[in-house]
């Protein structure tokens, strides 16, 4: 039915006959001629219907938006002065010779020309929303990215191997989606949060270079860059250390960006987790933002201002400041708004100093804490922060965790509000993560319990686990974590020791991970891996604001599908087959 795609016709096709199929994007009657912008997934082309061809002209009068049609015609250059530079096919048009209406379209429930349709409406009529050119192009681009990645991985001897969807729960930091078993009463499969266990078992099996572009599932609160089901580019290798794996994956991302966007990402800098948290208040810092968190506890530990003095003298405290260029022009109302921002993250509030004249000492500043300062301390603060006339210093003092998180969030807000974000790409590797964190007196792994510790004696590791660093690494781009991975534990004794430190009983270990510990006993090679969030990568590359806009059929923020009305009730027979107790007044769903 088709000889060419609409967007693939160019001036060199002039005088050629073409067969086109697609949808009526727009119909116009001008000067006795009917013009139709015909659309398919590749773009638009203008089709002209001449009244001298009475039969098809009459049929063209019936056309309305989104009618599905088949057209034959001859390609011509547009008349002088009628070239449309906003269309890739704007220099040509097709003179229609035949028209066949394949299907009519009812009045549309959403306006395809309106980018401000509600998310609920867009998802309810997603099959129509996907006809919008920007949505179509995002999904086409997504396919190009995965094709580019597959080609790169295949070129480097990686094998695409599938792993099970119905499996056993693994500790990935979120709730599992459970699937009841009909044949095993009272037992459940879990949908995988990642293929972690299976890709490690593939390394045991000798498949030393594995990858998979795979669906993963996490039952967690949603936001712009989270969905209950998402896609990972999952990679695992044997006989490759952390540095080699990072270089390989850095090369893959450089290749994808250069091939599809003609962007040179350059060499990715490395930053330790400790420096990322100290300077940026985040383990995924956006380096396009020049603002940093500057510690001043050593300068203010002896002043009379108790709000500063107590945290400065507390080993678990922190006193830090952000120097805002041009911030002296901020109103008190604006500063109060920023105070509310840090308070939402548990900090008590903000102190501030406006630098009205840099070289005039105390006389050149405006601040509610000026009475606690002397000329020497002020000079030290201005020197450390590199403040200039017209800048504003925003201070936060509290427990270290509160200050770090609060100022990390404030830094991002200030960067946006003051137009400080550079229009560039800033990739980064974050390394040297702590192996464990302590929550309510109990150890938890910062990544997952299969992550190997960095070189450390067994005795030292067991005695001071909170000082242990892991062989983990995260790839960050413009403030988003693109992927994370680690060198895995390949020794069963070390893996058992980590489980013990997590206070898992022998019964829990055997029940959850017995098969993995058993596998590690049989010549398991050193191995490492990483998993990329494909949806986030596409979101950034297409400059979308949410991963929903780069997925064909996503869920709402409540993990529901307005299109299919999922999740939906199960009928009583299904529940009984699954050995699930039927509640009274349980709604039926046929």
Topology:
Elements: E1 17-30, E2 33-40, E3 43-49, H1 54-60, E4 68-77, E5 92-103, H2 119-124, H3 126-129, H4 133-155, E6 159-160, E7 178-180, E8 188-190, H5 196-204, E9 209-217, E10 229-238, H6 242-261, E11 270-272, H7 273-280, E12 294-295, H8 297-300, H9 306-313, E13 317-324, H10 332-343, E14 351-355, E15 365-366, H11 375-385, E16 392-399, H12 400-417, E17 427-431, E18 436-439, E19 442-445, H13 458-463, E20 472-477, E21 480-487, H14 492-501, H15 506-519, E22 527-533, H16 534-541, H17 572-577
Parallel strand pairs: 3-5, 6-9, 11-17
Antiparallel strand pairs: 1-2, 1-4, 2-3, 4-5, 7-8, 9-10, 10-22, 12-13, 13-16, 14-15, 14-16, 17-20, 18-19, 20-21, 21-22
Please characterize this protein's 3D structure.
The chain has 590 residues and is α+β, with helices and mostly antiparallel strands. The protein has helices at residues 54-60, 119-124, 126-129, 133-155, 196-204, 242-261, 273-280, 297-300, 306-313, 332-343, 375-385, 400-417, 458-463, 492-501, 506-519, 534-541, 572-577; strands spanning 17-30, 33-40, 43-49, 68-77, 92-103, 159-160, 178-180, 188-190, 209-217, 229-238, 270-272, 294-295, 317-324, 351-355, 365-366, 392-399, 427-431, 436-439, 442-445, 472-477, 480-487, 527-533. The strands form 5 sheets. The chain has an 8-stranded mixed beta sheet, with helices on both faces. It has a 5-stranded mixed beta barrel with strand order 1-2-3-5-4. The model has no long low-confidence stretch (mean pLDDT 93).
């Amino acid at each position: 039915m088709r000889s060419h795609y609409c967007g693939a016709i160019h001036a060199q096709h002039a005088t050629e006959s073409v067969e086109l199929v697609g949808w009526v994007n727009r119909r116009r009657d001008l000067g006795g001629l009917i013009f139709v912008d015909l659309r398919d997934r590749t773009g638009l082309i203008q089709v002209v219907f001449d009244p001298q061809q009475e039969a098809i002209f009459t049929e063209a009068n019936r056309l309305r938006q989104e009618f599905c049609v088949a057209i034959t015609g001859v390609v011509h250059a547009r008349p002088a002065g009628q070239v449309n530079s906003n269309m890739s096919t704007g220099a040509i048009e097709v003179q229609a010779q035949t028209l066949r209406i394949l299907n009519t379209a009812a009045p549309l429930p959403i306006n395809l020309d309106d980018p401000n349709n509600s998310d609920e409406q867009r998802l309810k009529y997603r099959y129509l929303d996907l006809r919008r050119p920007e949505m179509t192009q995002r999904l086409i681009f997504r396919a190009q990215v995965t094709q580019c990645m597959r080609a790169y991985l295949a070129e480097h001897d990686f094998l695409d191997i599938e792993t099970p969807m119905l499996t056993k729960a693994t500790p990935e930091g979120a709730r599992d989606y459970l699937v009841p078993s009909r044949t095993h009463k009272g037992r459940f499969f879990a949908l995988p949060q990642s293929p972690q266990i299976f890709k490690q078992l593939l390394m045991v099996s000798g498949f030393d270079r594995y990858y998979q572009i795979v669906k993963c599932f996490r039952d967690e609160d949603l936001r712009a860059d989270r969905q209950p089901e998402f896609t990972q580019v999952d990679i695992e290798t044997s006989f490759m250390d952390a540095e080699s794996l990072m270089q390989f994956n850095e090369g893959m991302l450089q290749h994808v960006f250069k091939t599809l966007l003609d962007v040179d990402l350059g060499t990715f800098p490395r930053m330790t987790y400790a420096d990322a948290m100290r300077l940026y208040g985040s383990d995924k810092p956006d380096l396009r933002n020049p603002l940093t968190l500057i510690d001043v506890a050593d300068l203010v530990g002896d002043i009379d201002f108790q709000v500063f003095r107590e945290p400065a003298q507390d080993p678990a405290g922190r006193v830090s400041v952000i120097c805002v260029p041009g911030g002296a022009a901020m109103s008190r109302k604006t500063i109060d708004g920023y105070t509310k921002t840090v308070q939402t993250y548990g900090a008590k509030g903000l102190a501030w100093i406006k630098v009205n004249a840099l070289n005039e000492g105390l006389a050149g500043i405006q601040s509610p804490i000026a009475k606690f300062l002397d000329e020497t301390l002020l000079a030290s603060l201005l020197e450390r922060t590199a403040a200039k006339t017209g800048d504003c210093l925003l201070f936060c003092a509290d427990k270290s965790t509160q200050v770090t998180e609060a100022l990390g969030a404030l830094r991002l807000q200030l960067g946006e509000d003051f137009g400080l974000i550079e229009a560039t790409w800033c990739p980064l590797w974050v390394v040297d993560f702590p192996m464990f964190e302590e929550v309510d007196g109990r150890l938890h792994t910062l990544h997952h319990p299969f992550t190997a510790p960095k070189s450390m004696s067994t005795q030292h590791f067991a005695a001071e686990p909170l000082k242990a660093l892991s062989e983990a690494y995260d790839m960050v781009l413009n403030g988003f974590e693109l992927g994370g991975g680690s060198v895995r534990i390949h020794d069963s004794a070390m893996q058992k020791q980590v489980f013990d430190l997590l206070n898992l009983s022998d019964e829990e270990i055997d029940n959850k991970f017995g098969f993995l510990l058993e596998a590690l006993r049989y010549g398991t090679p050193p191995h490492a891996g990483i998993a990329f969030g494909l949806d986030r990568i596409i979101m950034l590359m297409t400059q979308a604001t949410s991963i929903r806009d780069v997925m064909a059929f996503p869920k709402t923020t409540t993990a529901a599908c307005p299109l299919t009305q999922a999740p939906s009730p199960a009928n009583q027979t299904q529940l009984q087959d699954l050995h699930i107790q039927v509640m009274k007044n349980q709604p039926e769903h046929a």
